Amino acid sequence: MTILEACRAGRVPEEVAAAAKAENVDPEALAASIGQGEAIVCRNRNRRNCRPLAIGKGLRTKVNANIGTSKDQMDPDLEMAKLRAALQAGADTVMDLSTGGPLREIRRRILEECPAPVGTVPIYQAAVDTVESGRSITEMDPDRLLGVIEDQAKEGVDFVTVHCGITREGVRFLESQPRLLGVVSRGGSFTVAWMRHNRAENPLYERFDRLLEICREHEVVLSLGDGFRPGALADATDRGQIHELMVLGQLTLRAWEAGVQVMIEGPGHVPLDQIQANVQLQKRLCHGAPFYVLGPLVTDVAPGYDHITSAIGGALAAWAGVDILCYVTPSEHLGLPDVEDVRQGVIAARIAGHAADVAKGVPGARAWDDAMAEARADLDWKRQIELAVDPARARHVRERCLPGDEEVCSMCGEFCAVKVFSGRGG
């Protein structure tokens, strides 16, 4: 029996109880939400060193951090440093998107060291294996792709991004409304290229039942990927994107029927005025399944600052109902992130998620802000730093700007409004 099936039967599996305790919510209520498909708990049954994590309606907005190598940067030790930085900054999940170097070794090391749920995009491994065998990506064997998914499930991967919603009909919809940037999802582009070359349907769509069997056996969460996510504001909310979302809604029902938990991935680059509509569409078309978005980025002109661009969009998206934010780093659109980029990306996404949680009334969210306000009223600098979303950064700035009177800050000094109002100003 899977977690989803147990929750539907009125039981509270140990993974759900553990996740509820970490979330400070009622275990029975969480189990009921999982049974309805509005929440999930991530933990592959083969991976005991992973803390079960709840994602979904009424819960704290979670943050995912992407790490991984490329052909140009293939240092496994660097990726482990990024993993540690992501976890120290507060990432709730981590995805290994490696496409260069010893992929299996990197994934094994991440799974061994990471106490949080780990996700992958299995088509990357399948594509690399195909190219290394002397063939092109368009010659990838669908059986090999499913084999990679099964291998990674056995290894302990907790959730997989799979682009099952791309169909031949969807490609026609995409082509009927030309884009400035076409298909920017790497997995989506691999899938479309394969389909066009072979004049065939998406193998993961055609063999979705086999995919469900693998996920059911190993308790892997399906993260139904948005292969047609927009990569520019001009491409947002177009025919291709919405058609794929409709297909994902159909596949969600099939996954639930098979006892497999699901979350849905979303855009991407989206103007501020379209974010709420995008979230509402996903929740409606995908039956309330948890929503996982990249950003969204609300402008295309901020390379080097896209962690800020995405935090703006992420706050609005999470307020509208998004359940997990995939971070965007300052390196987005420019290159692979370094360790500091990873840290900044996680912090920016956490700020966005927390701001939304306060607005949504997520239990406990506002209490954090109130505690900080009390520490500021008391001019308790030690407590303020302890409560900061990034204590190390707060401590560094405080020490750099330390005034002669350590009770105040160098902004106002003796003219500190808090000190004057409280009567401490003399």
Low confidence ranges? none
Name the structural class: alpha/beta
Largest sheet, spatial ordering of strands: 3-4-5-6-7-8-9-10
**Total helical segments:** 19
DSSP strand content: 5-15%
* Total beta strands: 10
Query: CATH topology of the largest domain, what is it called?
Result: TIM Barrel
* Major sheet characteristics: 8 strands, parallel, barrel
Number of domains: 2
Gap from first CA to last CA: 69 Å
CATH homologous superfamily annotation of the largest domain: Radical SAM ThiC family, central domain
The CATH class designation of the largest domain is: Alpha Beta
Shape: globular
Query: What is the helix content?
Result: 40-55%
- Level-2 CATH architecture of the largest domain: Alpha-Beta Barrel
Question: What is the averaged pLDDT score?
Answer: 96
SSE arrangement, N to C: HHHEEEHEHEHHEHHHHEHEHEHEHHHHH
Radius of gyration: 22 Å
Model description:
The chain has two domains: 60-360, Radical SAM ThiC family, central domain (TIM Barrel, Alpha-Beta Barrel); 379-422, no CATH class. Helix content is 51%, strand content 10%. The chain has helices at residues 3-8, 14-23, 27-35, 76-89, 103-113, 122-132, 142-155, 168-176, 186-198, 203-206, 208-218, 239-257, 272-285, 306-320, 339-360, 365-377, 381-387, 391-400, 417-422; strands at 39-42, 53-56, 62-67, 93-96, 118-120, 159-162, 221-224, 262-266, 291-294, 324-326. Helix 4 (76-89) links the parallel strand 3 (62-67) and strand 4.
